[in-house]
């Protein structure tokens, strides 16, 4: 896979697809900026990190029928009652099928960016962190998490997952069983 070529195509497609969603474009650009900075800090492939950032919300505003058409068959029943998470699955699927991304690290980062996953690699953890701490996010802890990510990646990841979890609860979203709750104490408190 040619990361630079894939990134170029993906960015072009994202700007077309989200042309009426300027706030979402700013969010994705903010995530991409964070991913680039963190990739330098952790000596990671910057183009790969950028692909993850630009792919993660590519299908955010698509319809539920679109998502259900563009996810792996095995997930259709699992996520039938959790429409919020569908964009992560369809973006991962589009990554595999349309962009021929065969790097499981990229696919898993995108697929689990809403829920986390205990076995996510550094790219997946950095996407979750970047999704929370990018400059356009309203989270009170965003700046602290950004700074923390330079010195303690695992703690920054755990704090980011806690924010996602709390945000879902505040919006009355159902918490999907995939959610990485290993970071909570034995009583389930965040």
Question: What features would you describe in this structure?
Answer:
The protein is mainly alpha-helical and 190 residues long. The protein has one domain: Hypothetical protein af1432. Helices cover 61% and strands 0% of the residues. The protein is globular. 40% of the residues are buried. Residues 186-190 have low confidence and may be disordered.
Task: Tell me how many strands there are.
Answer: 0
CATH level 1 class label:
Mainly Alpha
Q: Provide a count of the helices.
A: 10
Shape-level CATH architecture: Orthogonal Bundle
What form results from the Cα inertia axes? Answer: globular
What is the first-to-last residue Cα distance?
A: 39 Å
**Overall average residue pLDDT:** 90
CA radius of gyration is 16 Å
Tell me roughly what share of residues is in helical segments.
55-70%
Number of domains: 1
Order of helices and strands: HHHHHHHHHH
Low-confidence stretches: 186-190
Q: How would you classify the helix and strand content by structural class?
A: mainly alpha
Query: Biggest sheet: strands, sense, closure?
Result: none
β-strand amount: under 5%
CATH superfamily (homologous) name = Hypothetical protein af1432
What CATH calls the topology is: Hypothetical protein af1432
């Amino acid at each position: 896979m040619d990361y630079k070529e894939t990134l170029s195509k993906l960015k072009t497609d994202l700007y077309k697809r989200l042309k009426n969603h300027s706030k979402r474009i700013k969010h994705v650009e903010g995530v991409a900026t964070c991913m680039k900075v963190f990739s330098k800090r952790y000596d990671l492939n910057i183009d790969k990190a950028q692909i993850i950032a630009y792919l993660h919300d590519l299908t955010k505003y698509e319809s539920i029928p679109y998502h259900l058409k563009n996810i792996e068959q095995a997930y259709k029943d699992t996520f039938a009652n959790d429409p919020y998470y569908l964009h992560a699955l369809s973006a991962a699927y589009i990554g595999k099928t349309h962009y021929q991304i065969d790097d499981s690290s990229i696919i898993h980062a995108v697929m689990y960016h809403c829920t986390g996953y205990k076995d996510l690699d550094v790219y997946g953890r950095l996407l979750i962190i970047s999704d929370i701490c990018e400059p356009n996010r309203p989270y009170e802890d965003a700046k602290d998490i950004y700074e923390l990510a330079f010195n303690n990646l695992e703690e920054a990841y755990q704090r980011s997952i806690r924010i996602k979890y709390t945000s879902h609860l505040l919006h009355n979203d159902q918490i999907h069983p995939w959610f990485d709750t290993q970071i909570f104490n034995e009583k389930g408190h965040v």
